[in-house]
């Protein structure tokens, strides 16, 4: 079983110091700046990703892709976010250990910094997964679905419960929602049948007046560094789930009225779109824009 743990800061510092003392970058002919790739090291607890934050970083997103061949890769996925503790800045280096880097698969990683705009690193060297999970490490919708009610602006878990992963402890369910320009994670109070998600209570203004799709159900595990300077949020792969309007299957919904809330930034590592609401301090939020 994968358990909630503390991030060992001493290891983060020693790994980063051995490979990099600054965050280097290159700029191509098109003017696109790419920052130095994170360093990776594999063990039975996961792939340790050593990251040197750039100046004034607000948060860091972590992305993973599977290495299918010497020149072929899977679609990148968002696997987590790192945030400094309230009132603190990032230390000189941080460690994010991917606990779902399973044995028999090779992986590469990149990070995206946010410090008033997105800044993306190169992909890392290849690391071999060495984790043997005891049980499942993703949610499963099974026969469960989501029913959208346009009158009440709600999503309801219908037909069955969503099954939680059995191989992860202290996991919290999230629903991943996306527009054409951003994607976000929103906490769920339950994954039981008949759970109602009141969309006007959670969606920020950027999600109104545009088509919103459901990317899936994601599990989140939170860990804090031993010196309490930053927190890592680990995300499982999303579990796909069907959405209907009560009669027909639908791919999206649109809420015309406006409201304001905070959200979780889950956007692509190549995205330049910034949802300013992720900087609001009222609640924990995560950038979940995915894909590259």
The fraction of residues assigned to DSSP E strands is 35-45%
What's the helix-strand series? HEEEEEEEEEEEEEEEHEEEEEE
Q: Helix proportion of residues, in percent?
A: under 10%
Could you say which structural class the secondary elements and strand pairing correspond to? Answer: mainly beta
Radius of gyration from the alpha-carbon trace, in angstroms = 19 Å
- Gap from first CA to last CA: 31 Å
Overall mean pLDDT stands at 84
What oligomeric assembly is this protein in? single chain
Overall shape: globular
* Record field, number of beta strands: 21
Let me know the largest β-sheet. Answer: 12 strands, mixed
User: Unreliable runs, pLDDT <50, ≥5 residues?
Assistant: 3-23, 27-31, 272-284
What is the helix tally? 2
List the helices and strands and how they pair.
Layout: H1 9-19, E1 25-27, E2 33-35, E3 39-43, E4 46-51, E5 59-66, E6 77-84, E7 94-98, E8 106-114, E9 118-121, E10 127-128, E11 145-149, E12 154-158, E13 172-178, E14 183-187, E15 196-198, H2 199-202, E16 211-224, E17 230-235, E18 242-244, E19 253-254, E20 265-266, E21 287-288
